[in-house]
Amino acid sequence: AQKVTQAQTEISVVEKEDVTLDCVYETRDTTYYLFWYKQPPSGELVFLIRRNSFDEQNEISGRYSWNFQKSTSSFNFTITASQVVDSAVYFCALSEGGTYKYIFGTGTRLKVLA
Amino acid sequence: ETGVTQTPRHLVMGMTNKKSLKCEQHLGHNAMYWYKQSAKKPLELMFVYSLEERVENNSVPSRFSPECPNSSHLFLHLHTLQPEDSALYLCASSQEGGTYEQYFGPGTRLTVT
Question: Are A51 and A68 in contact (CB under 8 A)?
């Protein structure tokens, strides 16, 4: 069965600190896709990144970076030099190719304090 | 223009009312989704439409009735709801099921009194 676990319910950091949000997934498929979304207080989930199961390269986009490791079934997200605007709930999600089911984790609430 | 819009943004309804939520996507996607987001629960997938055909229906009570008249519009018709149905209802669209990222609307905050 598919499952996404975000064990960190809430994290608080002080501005400019680095923070890593953990995501562990379970799937029996060899072809699958992983996603991260940000949900600010306004409510709308904003897409951040998509990764397929055949591409284990880490990715960096500005202050954001993602570490995908199939050996540990993890897809962790790091924010470098966090800012107050990064405060939001972050969701990790999994889908299997050819289906319409996206499985979301329960989210990690990040609070960045000034 | 915002990719996915939802109306209304807030809705308060009594248990005997009938109302509808509307979603519109301007991204040329062919799949649309309804999710329910309750406090401290994972997002719950309710319905999926691909090219106006329903492809997923996750054991949702019949008091929720979806409608997809074309690939750009999605409705969720509500009737005789219960207080536990109070939640944020999110609409999303994607290019294809499972392979591509979803784009979400701002949601409708529903309160059932």
Answer: yes
Separation CA A97–CA B10 (nearest Å): 34
How confident is the model at residue B55, as a pLDDT? Answer: 84
Q: How far apart are CA A100 and CA B9, in angstroms?
A: 26
* Residues paired with A35 in a beta bridge: A50, A93
The answer to whether the Cβ–Cβ distance between B99 and A106 falls below 8 Å is no
**CA nearest to A34, candidates A3, A78, A71, A64:** A3
Determine the length of chain B. 113
Question: What type of residue sits at position B76?
Answer: L
- Contact between A44 and B45 using a beta-carbon 8 Å cutoff: no
Residue B17's SS3 state is coil
CA angle, A43 then A39 then A100, to 5°:
95
Do A107 and A8 meet the contact criterion of CB atoms below 8 Å apart? Answer: no
- pLDDT at B52 (0 to 100): 83
- pLDDT tens-digit readout, B76-104: 999 999 999 999 999 999 997 778 899 99
> With contacts defined as CB-CB under 8 Å, which chain A residues touch B55?
100
Q: What stretches of B8-96 show up as alpha helix (H) in DSSP?
A: none
Predicted local confidence at residue A1, as pLDDT: 78
Residue B11 forms beta bridges with which residues? B110
